[in-house]
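Give me the fold.
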Amino acid sequence: MATSKGKSKNGIEGEGSYTGTKAYDEATARFIKDGKVDKAAQEAKRAMESGEADELKAAEDKGKAGDPRGQGKPTSN
């Protein structure tokens, strides 16, 4: 039986983890508040201008394809 917050009595959340979303939102807010965005952007820019760029682009394309584990399963977009 689910509670009003979407968790069942055994602690399992359904689609859309409220606790996961909350943790992500809090970590993102801390990252921004701590002023880490500019440094991360500069590091990403350097990586994209390095020999690592092809590997990063391939990983991005793989993620966008919806098959990050390479299972070859069709995606449902």
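The chain has a mean pLDDT of 83.
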